[in-house]
Amino acid sequence: AKARAAGAAGAAGAAGAAGAAGAAAGSVAKTEAQEPVVLRSAASRALFSVIRAEGTAPAEFSEHSDRLFGLLVEETLATLPGVVPKTVRTPCGDYDGLAPLPAKDVAVVSIMRAGDGLAEAFRRVLRGVAVGRILIQRDEASVDKRAKLYYSKLPKDIASKKAVVLADPMLATGGSLVRAVGVLLAAGVREDRIVVVNVVSAPEGLATLRRAHPDLRIVTGAVDAKLNEQRYIVPGLGDFGDRYYGTV
Ligand code: URA
Questions:
Q1: pLDDT for the residue 7
Q2: What is the rounded distance in angstroms from the CA atom of residue 202 to the CA atom of residue 2?
Q3: Cβ(81)–Cβ(47) under 8 Å?
Q4: Whose CA is nearest to atom 2 of ligand 1?
Q5: CATH top class, domain 4-245
Q6: CA distance 248 to 243
Q7: Going by CA atoms, what residue is nearest to atom 3 of ligand 1?
Q8: Nearest atom within ligand 1 for CA of residue 231
Q9: Residue 8 dihedral angles phi and psi, to the nearest 5°
Q10: Nearest protein CA to atom 7 of ligand 1, as residue
Q11: E strands along 154-238, which residues?
């Protein structure tokens, strides 16, 4: 999948906002708006250099992950469905900017446990935003080890939100995310209002997710090379949840 780069200029945000406005108006054709947005700033590269390093201890890992979450949160909020261009008057002229969504129009849903820190990062910026949780784990007893839903608690009015952020740091095979998106759709959320946010994506997971749900958006910190035989992302960063919560 061709990815849109974020962080270089306002152009990416403006293109996203234009797409967002179209999506909000109901035109959800397979356009540029559904290409993944990828962080490509020097800031994200520096933070990734710490969290990807295998010798980084949990405290430093979670601190730098939280800082990276900050970049992902801002990029996501600027490209949510429903964000529209807005010109503001500065003391010296006009600035072509964007009108962000208020917290009441957004819901954040984390895939437990790894997505919880990322969901908290959204809560810090979007004060009062409703947060839901989904627990999905691989069913080792099933033949195909399919992703099984164990728990879900969603905001009651989630179907009427203008945007629903689904937070899961590692997009590996895409199995859990496809299952989680199914939970949101069953709750009445429109596919084109869902934004999947993650730290690292594998091409295999991106392809699976986009094939199953072509109209949702994806914001990711990086697209890596591949999955290994254990379905870990290469080069990736290892097990995100274990490193973030210190259960290594
Ligand atoms: N989950 C992780 O935490 N890391 C991977 O590389 C893949 C899935």
A1: 55
A2: 13
A3: no
A4: 239
A5: alpha beta
A6: 6
A7: 239
A8: 7
A9: -75, -40
A10: 232
A11: 163-167, 170-171, 194-201, 217-223, 226-227, 233-234
* pLDDT computed for residue 20 by the predictor: 40
Residue matched to tokens 């290469």? 234
**ipTM for this model:** 0.96
Ligand 1 pocket mutation, candidates 116, 170, 200, 204, criterion most atoms within 8 A of CB: 170
Could you read off the pLDDT of 167-179 as tens digits, one per residue? Answer: 999 999 999 999 9
**Percentage of the chain surpassing pLDDT 90?**
81
Nearest CA among 244, 235, 239 for reference residue 49: 235
Helix (H) or strand (E) holding 7: none
Secondary structure letter of residue 6 according to DSSP: E
Instruction: Tell me the two tokens of residue 169.
Output: 């740091």
Q: Which long-range contacts (CB under 8 A, 24 or more apart) does 63-70 make?
A: 65/117, 65/169, 65/199, 65/240, 65/244, 66/117, 66/121, 68/44, 68/199, 68/221, 69/117, 69/118, 69/121, 69/199, 70/121, 70/125
Q: Work out the pLDDT band at 138, boundaries 50, 70, 90.
A: confident
Rounded to the nearest angstrom, the distance between the alpha carbon of 161 and the centre of ligand 1 is 29
DSSP single-letter state for residue 36: P
Instruction: Please give the C-alpha separations between residue 100 and each of 21, 39, 128, 226, 244, in angstroms, as whole numbers.
Output: 12, 19, 15, 34, 29
Q: Dihedrals φ, ψ of 175, to 5°?
A: -60, -50
Q: Measured in angstroms, how far is the CA atom of residue 88 from the centroid of ligand 1?
A: 42
More confident of the two residues 134 and 33: 134
What phi, psi does 157 have (nearest 5°)? Answer: -100, 30
CA of 48 to the centre of ligand 1 (A): 15
